[in-house]
Write a structure and sequence with these properties.
The chain is mainly α. The chain is elongated, with a radius of gyration of 16 Å. The two termini are 25 Å apart.
């Protein structure tokens, strides 16, 4: 049996958070931009993978309003993070607005991580078997590759 999607999501959150911390503390703007591009790729692939797997299963397969609300709330948080990434992409890293926008993205991500690893993980554990969560883990990896090869 493969690794549970919940373990894969936690690992992805850790990687993204670690990259964000490196960006936050980096003073060399060229390296900071490289780290941002790496983090952005990880974040977008991670969000696409979540939406195509665990969120979709919570919305379509469970038939439980609470599970659907948790998944829809997480999707809304993803939209906000995509918007902030778009703003960062359109702003020169030397611009003072870049740093404040990055702080907002980091804050949004940390808030999202906390709510996902509590409410969404709880719903998923209640609604799906270990075997299903393992299958979703494989689907998640495939979805990430398809959206950001």
């Amino acid at each position: 049996m493969g690794e549970s999607i919940l373990m894969k999501l936690e690992e992805g959150h850790r990687v993204i958070k670690d990259l964000m911390n490196l960006i936050k503390n980096e003073h060399d703007l060229v390296h900071k931009k490289e780290l941002y591009l790496q983090m952005r790729e990880e974040l977008l692939a991670h969000m696409d993978g979540e939406e195509k797997t665990i969120y979709r299963h919570l919305i379509e397969d469970v038939g439980n309003q609470e599970s659907e609300e948790v998944a829809h709330d997480a999707e809304d948080e993803h939209e906000e993070m995509r918007h902030l990434c778009d703003k960062l992409d359109a702003t020169r890293i030397e611009d003072e607005n870049w740093e404040s926008t990055f702080k907002a993205l980091r804050h949004q991500f940390l808030k999202h991580q906390e709510s996902e690893e509590s409410a969404l993980f709880t719903e998923a554990k209640e609604d799906f078997s270990r075997e299903e969560l393992s299958e979703f883990g494989e689907e998640f990896e495939e979805a990430k590759l398809q959206s950001h090869p």
